[in-house]
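SAMPLE LOG
Freezer: B-3
Tube label: C17
Construct: single chain, 841 aa
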Amino acid sequence: MTLSQELLPDRLSQALNKLAALQQEQIYFAPIRHHSPSCSFALKKLIEQTKPTHILIEAPVSFTPLIEQLLHDDTRPPIAILCQTEIDTIPLVTESEDDSVSKQSTCSVFYPFCHYSPEWVAMQMAKEQHATLQFIDLPWALQCDQEIAADFDKSRSLLSETYLKHSQYIQYLMKKLHCRDHDEVWEHLFELKDYNDIADWQNFFIDTFIWCAMARLDYSPSSLAAEGSVQREQYMLTAIGQLKKSQPDAKIVVVTGGFHTLPLLEGLWHDQLVLPKKTEMTRFNHQQKNGDKDQNWLIRYSFDRLDSLNGYASGMPSPAYYQAAWQSMLLYDKSTTNGKSCVAFRQSLTADVLTNIVDKLRQQNSDNIIGFVPFRSAIAQSMLLANLREHHGPGRYDLLDAIQSCFIKESINDSRHEFWLTVQNCLSGNLLGEIPKDIAQPPLVNEVYLTLKKYRFKLDYSSPKLTHIDIYRKSQHRQRSRYLHLLAFLQVGFANRIDGPDYIHGKRLTIMFEDWRYAWTPMVEARLIKLSEQGTQLAQIAIKQLQLATEQSGHSSIVAVEQLIQGALMGLESCFDYLLNNLSNCIENDNELDNLINCGHRLLYLWQGQNFLQLKNTATLLILLVKIIKQSLFLLTKLKQPEQEQQQKNIKTLLSFRDLLNYLPEQLNVKQFKHDFYHNLHRLQPELAQLPLICGAIDSLSYLDAYLSQQQLEDKIKNNFRLTTPDDHAINYFIGIMQCTPQLIIHSTFLLDSLDQLMIDWSSERFIEILPDLRYAFSQLNPTQNASLASQIAKKYHIVDDELNFYQYNFSEKELNKALSLELFITKHIQQQHLQTWFKQ
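STRUCTURE (predicted):
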């Protein structure tokens, strides 16, 4: 692909001359694309041939203390350096506007490596060649900003390629070469070269330099300065110049993202080698000291996190595929005597990858079974596509196109999502790296990892897995459940519960098992490192967070009882008494009736799960329930609120209060509490006379629980349906009854007759006006109750069953022909009158 310098912009032609001049000074540049196997292969050849004394890599200088860990024999990619630094974010203004307090946030970023990352290959080659390894980029503390710090949970990379992806030059190449995206352009031009052409590192890196430099020309110096590239490049220039100044005979290989190579060449050579001045060295040394603010950890990383298809913005997609491609390159490099061509190696790679995909499809679903014929056709088609596109063997896009053509029988638009998800997962992989066991890690990370291992969770791969926990019958399973609840509460991101009893909301409490989906990912380790600032034990951190939440809850009994249940689910016995005392105080200070009733129900859920949760303070739970009942009885005066919407809410609260009393533990005096409940309601009724919704609800519930006789109920119905009562009052009273005890309309003939008489006196206009309210009232009935009520009304008015039913009649052939003839006649008449357009309007 190497272009004649005559076709290049003058700036790039001059840069290529500077590249050659710097090589004469024993400074060799390797402009790479991150995680590119072909760049790694060319870099390997460059280092083997030049045998440098120093290898410089674009990575923050603060990573230098981790070099020994990176080169450790037990370190196996994919791995990453997690770098964190504290920065000042938006100032918090205190009561005095002159006095502001800066809030610090943790700014985090990943620097990932896989086996075929050029940076990883450079480090391994430095170890093999006994070359000095040096990181030359700005400390992370000088690169991050408030925008990054505000979004910790987003996985960010120091190896960003956003500028390349959005370059107008590369967009034009995409159209010119008929490629779908910039990844296909890259693969077409670089990854699928002949292995021998890639090994020709001089020409290969000239091509990658032109690719990246042309993309860089799309951006203005001001935009690059605003983004931070200019500052980073100036730092790297000084680092390279300082080394050459102190060791003139040093033979240096510089490995940087190709986007930065152009300004480095221009800064190092102006008719001669440019070495840093004193002022530049002063600034450089000051910037280098900022590396002390960075905290760096070597952590395991995973292929699925590395995959650009999962949101990773740097480097090549499909890590598992390119890992296999890298292994194929290395195998070719070693087998120089068997005469096997580059094309043959790539064909073999394609067959292996396709075999893996077919096996995975067969394992997952019988509908996805791929036979031998489509399998063989896919291999053949990938080879034909490679020939058509002038590739030296099939590549990733050739493979995907062959799969789409040979494995999908229906329309492409109708192809199942699960199918492509399986293909993507096979190409992406789920390999998780390894790091030395004795390296410095925050104690919290080691504690959690070892605890999860003790509970037999599978942590070797980052793909999600399911665990089925027998929470009632197995004590070890209960411990696993508590630990998972603890991790979930602290938002570690390790596991999500997908089924099981929910004691906070009272759902599925009879379920005896919990199902969790879990995965150990780099983000889990990152979150644990972040939590390490708060302590070394998860339980201690959770207790601190619960205590902080209680201070900020504002005496809400709902929040307090949720914290209590959460503490029980996590097995935090040491703080249970504290949470109970906090709940007691909140109950005393909570003046919202519905809050207290909801709190009571959640306490009942906790009581129901006392054996599973192994609660020791059950007597205190009973005391708190009694306190809630007494406080709620006192707050029944809240029912006097006149607003219609509030009355509807109060009816629900009233029903919930009754349910709470019905489900109280037998250890409490339930009968006395129910007596007190209805006594207080009847005492309030004179004050509720103008609230027919509430009155209807109270009367129906009182009758249902035998605190009102049949005669007393009929007297109250008669009083609310008398002729002098406004229609709205009567209907609202009826709705109140129907919302609480809809069965009364069926079992109480008197109620039905009273409503019937009321409706007889209405005019047609009045009936239509009231109809929506009536429909709402009768919507409380289920189909069986509706049928029963219809039968009663039919019997009262002597209507036979046949008059209530609708029948579907069958048409005879004669009637059908007559209808079709009539339709044809009408259609012709419309056409004769030219009315077709009129009918469409």
